[in-house]
Design goal:
Blueprint (H helix, E strand, L loop, with lengths): L5 E2 L12 E2 L6 H9 L4 E10 L10 E10 L5 H16 L6 E5 L9 E6 L9 E3 L2
Antiparallel strand pairs: 1-2, 3-4, 5-6, 6-7
């Protein structure tokens, strides 16, 4: 709640008046997809998101990409391969060094943070958190 941008439609708003919220994540697309389809489900959603989170590693507006796969055969290794192929294409390199760090997010299972070797952006020996 504290990371949310609220927008008032009133030009002189009361501080307690919150009528519109800027999208904080793209996850509602997953819910709508699950309500409309039956498994197996494979979808990717991307969009602009807004959060009151601005420091050296975050900006208040960023593009979020998320995927959802529901079936009985896909596993974490498939996701790792997919993300590696995406990073090679995105950074236009033949190889990309990646590390997956176990983490906890209440909205994903399993959860991980993903870093790429910053060689792809000209900073050898450094890591860049991208996911």
């Amino acid at each position: 709640m504290w990371d949310t941008f609220w927008v008032s439609q009133n030009p002189h708003p009361d501080p307690t008046e919150r009528t519109l919220v800027m999208r904080t994540h793209t996850s509602p697309v997953q819910v709508r997809t699950m309500l409309k389809q039956t498994p197996p489900i494979r979808m990717i959603c991307m969009g602009r998101t807004y959060r009151k989170d601005s420091d050296a590693t975050h900006t208040p507006m960023f593009h979020q990409i998320e995927g959802l796969v529901i079936d009985e055969t896909t596993h974490f290794g498939h996701m790792k391969w997919c993300l590696e192929e995406f990073c090679k294409a995105f950074f236009e390199v033949d190889e990309v060094k990646m590390r997956f760090r176990a983490s906890h997010f209440p909205f994903t299972e399993p959860s991980a943070e993903v870093d790429v070797g910053a060689e792809a952006i000209g900073k050898p020996g450094k890591w860049l958190e991208i996911l």
